Amino acid sequence: MEPSLIESSLMEAVRSIFPEIGASVLNVQMEKVISDPSEFIVTTGITGDMKGILMIKALCIDAVEIANIMLGNIGQAGDRSGITQSHKEALGEIANLVSGRFLNILSVNSVDCNMTPPTILTGSGIFSAVPNMRFAIDLRVKGESWGLIVSLGLLTL
């Protein structure tokens, strides 16, 4: 599979999902690999024709902001004092949406993949990496009041 197809499919998934949950995206920038520390990471595994991992990484303040945008759109007021269970569930759902849209876009090109349920990590100064991958890319996604990184690492293409 061509890396350019993977890149464009991930970019399309990101650019479509965030507005659907009410979060306007101002900028999506592709970067090689970003090693910024995070305080919140959600991962989904990718299985099937491609094998790898998709991660959404953010600082706590940004994770709370994007989760509150999503929660506000379904009539739930979000707490701004820190990561709550509702925030974790909302961010897990965002990871599901991005991963699912990405894999659906690829399925049009006869790529048959599935994803695992999200895994959520929280803490201070978490560094994540996708070592020994055949393909890795990060998208820095910026909204009006939030920012995060969507990382994709694939063992097989």
Number of extended strands: 7
The main β sheet shows up as: 7 strands, antiparallel
CATH class (first level) name: Alpha Beta
Secondary structure class reads alpha+beta
Seen as an oligomer or otherwise, the chain set is single chain
Mean pLDDT: 90
User: How many helical stretches?
Assistant: 3
Helix content: 25-40%
| Residue fraction in strands | 35-45%
Cα separation of the termini: 6 Å
What does the overall shape look like? globular
The CATH architecture comes to 3-Layer(aba) Sandwich
The ordered H/E elements are: HEEEHHEEEE
CATH H level: which superfamily? CheC-like
The CATH topology turns out to be Chemotaxis protein chec
Radius of gyration: 15 Å
Query: Which stretches of 5+ consecutive residues score pLDDT under 50?
Result: none
Number of domains: 1
Description:
The protein is an alpha+beta fold and 157 residues long. The protein contains three helices and seven strands. The protein has a single domain (3-156), classed as Chemotaxis protein chec (3-Layer(aba) Sandwich), CATH 3.40.1550. Strands 1, 2, 3, 4, 5, 6 and 7 form a seven-stranded antiparallel sheet that branches. A hairpin with a 3-residue loop joins strand 6 (135-143) and strand 7 (147-156). The radius of gyration is 15 Å and the shape is globular. The relative contact order is 0.29.
